[in-house]
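Q: Start with the shorter request: fold the first protein.
A: Done. Sequence, then structure:
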Amino acid sequence: MQLGLINSAWFGSPVGTAEGIRKTRQIGFDSIDIFADPLEIDIKERRLIYDTCRQEDLPVVSVVCVALGLPDFNATVRRFHVDRARKHLELGYELRARNLLLVLGEYIWQQEVITPADQWKWGVESVQELGDFASTLGLEIALELEPFHLSLVSNVKEMRRFLDDVGRPNVKANLDISHLALTHTPASSISSLRGRIAHVHLSDCDGKKHGDLPPGRGVVEFIPYLEAIRDTGFGGAVSIELEYSPDPNRIGEWVAEAYRETDRMMRQLKMRDARAATGGRPHS
C-alpha cells in the first residue's frame, strides 16, 4: 500500500502549494491528495500542482470535493453541485489521479419537513450522474463515511446501502479510521465492504469530536482497523488527514510526526515497505 498525505495539511501555514508538495516527498510520502477547488484556482495554479508533482515523482491519488448540496431539495442547487463536482473530476483527470474523494451532505431540518427518503434519493441520483461521468475519465469515486449525526452516510451499513442504490462499480467507499472510531464502528464490520473500498483516510481524535490529529495524539486504536482494511485485499493509498495545526509555524514537525507514526504501524502490519507502489496513472 501507499502512504499519502492530503495537501490540506499545509493550509493556514507559511508553506505554499509547491513547497508543500516538495516537503511531502522529502518527508517520505509515496503519494499526495489534492484539496483544491477548480472554481477558485486558475490555470497557473493547476499547472503548478501538476508540474511540481511530476518533478517530485509524487503521484496524485485523489482529488477532494466537498459537495454538501448533492442531496439538496432544490433542483437548481443539486445541479450546481453536480456540475461543480464534474469540474473536480476533470481536475482529477488532468492531475492523473485515481479517484475523486466525495463528501456528501447531511439531512436538513432534523429529518423533518423534507423526508429522509427524498433526500437519500436525490443524493443517489446525483452520485449516479457523477459516477457515469467519472467512468468516461477512467476515475473512481470514493464516498467518505462521515461521523456526524445527520450525515447521509454515517456508518458501514448505510454506506453499503448507498453504494447498492447507486449501483455503479466505480463508486466505492472511503473509510476514515477516526470517523469509524467516532461512530463506535467495530473493525470487524469493515469486511462487509470487501472489494468496495477505493481509499482510506487516517488521523487521530479525542474519541468525542472530529480531530484530524497525528496518530498518538488522541485515543484511536489504529491497528485493528488497519488489519481489517488489509484483510479485505485493499491495495490503494492510506492518506493522512491533518488540518488546523495548533502551531502553523511548526507544521513540518506536525506532518513528519504523523508520517513516522503511520509508517511504523503500516510496516508493523506489513502493509508498506521500501517498494511501496507509486499509484495513480503513470506519468507520461
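Q: Next, the second protein, separately.
A: Sequence, then structure:
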Amino acid sequence: MQYLITGGAGFIGSNYAFRLLKRGEQVTLYDNLSRRGAQANLQWLASTYGKDAFRFVQGDVRDPALLTAAAYEADVIVHLAAQVAVTTSVEQPRRDIEINALGTFNVLEAARLSPKRPIVVYASTNKVYGALDELVHEERETRYVLRDYPNGIPETYPLDFHSPYGCSKGAGDQYVRDYARIYGLPTVVFRQSCIYGPRQFGIEDQGWVAWFIIATLLGRPLTIYGDGKQVRDLLYVEDLLDAYDAAIGRMPAVSGQIYNVGGGPSNQISIWREFGPLLEEILGHTIPVSWGDWRPGDQRVFVADIRKAHRDLGWHPQIDVETGIRQLSHWVMDHRELLERYLAHA
C-alpha cells in the first residue's frame, strides 16, 4: 500500500517509515524539517534503504494545496505532524492551533478529496483528559496513585482540554472522529501516553524520557519540575507501531474509534523518584538534578486504561519499562556524537 506520513522525519514517523520500507510498502514522508534531528532521521532512512526507496515532500501541514497533492495517491495517511510542547503552546497559542487544529483539518480534507478515501490514523494525546486534578490522588513514598482508577483512565472519561496544546490536539481528536461519522472516512484516533525509543531527539519540554537519558549521558543540566512523584505509563515506540498496524489491518471495522495507547498499569513509573534510581542503576552512577516548580497542566498521574485496544485490536505492550530504557540508553550511547551536534544547535 501507499503510505503518507506527516511528520515523517520525526521520531515516530521515521521509525514507522523504517518498518514500512522493510516490508516493502510505498512511503511518502511529509515534513517541514523544523524539528532538530529531522535531517538526521532522513539520512538514516536513506543510508539504510537508499535515497530512492521513499518519496520526501518538504512541506507544512498548514499548506492545504501541497498537502492535498501529496495525499492524492495515499491508501493510508498517518498524521503525526504537530506542535508538541505544552510550554510552547502557552507561549505561542496561535501557532499551536494553526499547526495542530488547522493542520489536522487540512489532513482530513486532503483525505476527503482523494479518490482513494484513505485510512487516516491520528496521533492524539492523553492531555485531552486535562490535569485530572478533580480525582483523588494518594501520595506514596515514591509516587502518586489514582485511588479510583486502578486500570487507568478510560476513553469514556470526560474530556477537559487543558492548555492551548490540549485544546488544539483535542480539536483535532474530535474532528478525526467526526469525519468518520459525517463523511464515512475510515479514521482512528490514538490517545498516546509517553512514547519513547531510538531516534527520539528529546528536549526538556517534550520527550522527557529521552531527554533525561541524553542530558545525563552528555553531561547537560537536568531539572525535575514538581516533586518527581508524577506517574506516567511508558510505551516503547515499536509497541505503538504495532497498534497502528493492528488498526489499519482491521479497517473498516474500527473506523471512527478512539483508543488509549500507553504502557498501561504494568508500565507505569514515577518520573524521577522511580525513574531516577532505575537510570542510575543502568548507567552505573548517581545523577545530579535541580528542581523547579510545577508546570501548567501537569498531571500528577496519567496511566492509560488500554483494555479497549486489547479487546478490539488484540494489542498489548510487549516491551517492559526496564528493557525499553536499557535499549534507548544503548542507542544514546552509540550516537553520542550525533546528539552532541544536535544539542549544540538546539
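Q: Describe the second briefly.
A: Residues 93-113 form the longest helix (21 residues). The mean pLDDT is 96.
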